[in-house]
Sequence to fold (332 residues):
Amino acid sequence: MLSSPRAVCVGEGLVVLVAEPGALEDSDSFRRSAGGAEANVARVLVQLGVSTSWLSRVGDDGFGRYLLRQLGESGVDVSAVSVDPARPTGIYVKERGAGTGVGHDLPRGESRMTYFRTGSAASALSAEDLVPTVIEGAAIVHLSGITVALSASAESMSKALLASAATVSFDLNFRPALWGSRISDASSVLADHVRGSDVVLMGADEAHEVFGINDPAALRAEFPEPRHLVVKNDAHVVTAFDGSSRVDVPALTLDVVEKIGAGDAFAGGFLAGLLTGHSAVDRVRLGHLCAAGALTAHGDAAEVADPSRLAAALALPDAEWNSARFADLVAQ
Fold:
């Protein structure tokens, strides 16, 4: 166990079964990988040199053992993960479009997920799963609205984190279908988590869906409590507030391969920048660079660029950053 992880990511992990391109019913084979919002963030953090623990629950099954192995081999400490003897590890199936226009095939480059997580081990997360020695030693504890939505017991766990002395990072990650019969409470519950956290990340579109607000300044006025409030908008510009100060940093130009995991990668980059003392602008730039790694590749977990190339990108003058293409910045 890491005696003092700088970051702890709390939430579910999922085994991903990726179908062959084309209609799902025509896929004869599936490629296995590891996913889940907080697990994705953890893997980005360790690539950026931040010692990180993942706190979760997995089933006592092959999929659970696979997740533990994958995260562990990535450098993430998994000693705080509980193995549930009765509930299975959650999975989801990812279908990918081949663009044939035949049957249920999706357009090329698009993907669709089907989740099998009801009754999973992670859905049984509760305050009892919080390992005090891991939580208390961390510089930051990260979770998302997905974890809050999993179940009433998972919500009780997240509230226990907010009530603790931990510095909490919260990514809104609104998934309406996950809330089920609790959907009428989602707005107020998520607002409480935003107000109770120290670092908050959200997309302008999901903020509008949950709170009826999408303008960054209006969101800051509504939620003055978190020191750091990060708003990602449809114009590919991220607005980051640190107290009363504000920076607006555009994303890099790139060719999108797949959008899955980009938000988690951004969160990992931003948090790493925060933990390692980067400037307000460079925290967002690091988030953009990590998100770009996810957007330009298949798979949930972003592959972070070489440290020397990250450093060179962070050092660019604003005018050069604003016109830069991600592929040029990471080219060998």
